[in-house]
Amino acid sequence: MSNGVADLTANGSELDSSVFGDSLWGKAFLKFRRDRAGMWSLAVVTAYALIALGVWTGVWGTSWADVSGAKWAPISAEHWLGTNIIGQDIFERAVFSTKTAFEVGLVVAVLATVLGAVLGAMAGFFSGSWIDEIIIWLMGVLDSIPFYLLVAAIAFSLEGNPYAMHIAMISTFWIGTSRLVRGEVIKLKSLDFVEAARATGVNQLTIIFRHILPNTFHILLVQATITFVAAIKSEVILSFLGIGVQDGISWGLMIAESTFEVLAGFFNNFLAASVLMFGLVMAFNMFSDALQDALDPRTVSG
Amino acid sequence: MEILQYSVRKLIAGIPLVLGVTFISFLLMVYFGPDKTYELLGKNPTPEQIEEVRRELGYDQPFLTRYALYVQEIATLNFGSSESSGELVSSLLARTIPVSIALITPGFVLGNLLGVLFALIAAYHRGSWADKFIMGASAVGMSISFLIAIIAFQIIFSSNFGLGLFPVRGWNVHSFGDYLSYVTVPTLATVFVALGYNTRFYRAVIVEEMTRDHVRTAKAFGTPPARLFYKNILKNSMIPIITRVVFSIPFVVISGSLLIESYFGIPGVGKVTFDAITSGDQPVLKAVVGLTAALFVLAQLLTDILYRAVDPRVSLT
């Protein structure tokens, strides 16, 4: 319908909408593209992702564990950011840690969002029934245990498992997503298209997962970015407490290492990890905000 | 009377939550927690000795029996003494909880008050440079890890490389002056980190309230801005604010600030609990878990009663 109008008015944004359609996603894409802060943050996140990809494929960051210089060597052409207490190159370690951050962030964000979506949708669709009651009870219980204590308990009960930290984060980070999805599904399930599906005899699980859940995807995407940031930030604290990354190196482990160094007046390790981490978290937060603005149906539909 | 009836009903409704928290803690911290058999045995134990110790620890009992025993000990407040220090759990908690509260309260209060204040300024000048500046600063604050903030503040205020004004670590409080000198740097770090999140949250709440019709009507009737802000906007925003504040209280009391306590070597309850988890000190764990669950049920009750206080439309039934 809007195609004809768009051709007549020949207005830039109208033309765009004829290309990308009138859907939430089409409009959100256009809105995001006009958001300068959003585009910049996306560029920064992409740059970090490329660094991580390079580490993962073995292009760079391979010698993070080698002892290649003197203790606390200063910044030089050989060691761009100096070396740490045992002579390992800080730049290499900071670069390798980018991969660790993405690994933790992606694993936790994807799995926690999927878990939150499934449980939230079940609770919302069967709201008021025992399924809903159990899921709400579980969320309340997990919410009432202080996060770091729960993580510590999970980490110690899975002694030595390198994924203990991931499991602990997933088992708490799904709750926020789940609450939002539950609310949205309660709204959606009374709409006509669900009624129509029900009337034509579509199986309940198909209604939940094929008809309703795809309509909450804009919430899931934003929640996944929020979870990603939360996971990276928690990793730093958990690694400092000794229940985080078990093998390899991460920004959290670098900062933990540096807590003694800073009191001796050696700041390179601390600054390298902090600045890199700040850049990624800041960019991801801005990206998340821009995404949220672009996907907010209240503003998109206007 | 109505409130009392309501409270009793609410406390009974809190039982499933308490059971859930104790169950998960039992599962993670006791059933799958550290095995203490070999700590209590000497070198080269015989199979009989191992059997003996396992029986004493109750490891040979079935799962449900052990859980029932665990709940029973929590319910009867029978915690005994810490296994690692031998100190009575009650005196251990009486010693450490006040430290955590003293440590965290200034940061908690300031973080929330300043958060509401900045949120009001930002919301009032929505879209202006003040709003942009406050929200930009919040975004930066939210992106800085708590640990990084702690270390940075320690370098700046406490170390020889910075101002060197405050003690680097520890908690040796004998007077109010001591207290101020030890609490300042942790408070600054806490406020710095909490402020971004709080301001953003409170601004969203206040902006939502400001765009409501009743505010527009009140404005049209010529309500003075101060009154409009206090009576029409702030008062109506209290419900989400209360929820956020009250539900943080159990965490403030129980986990204190584990990170601050471990970083600065302060003997608070967060550190004690963390050590209890890592060493499997069950008497301490039971007490803390029981206390957490109870505080949560109380927090729920408190929020409901406070909702009633700020919004007469809310009924306690």
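qc> The mean pLDDT of chain B is 82.
qc> done
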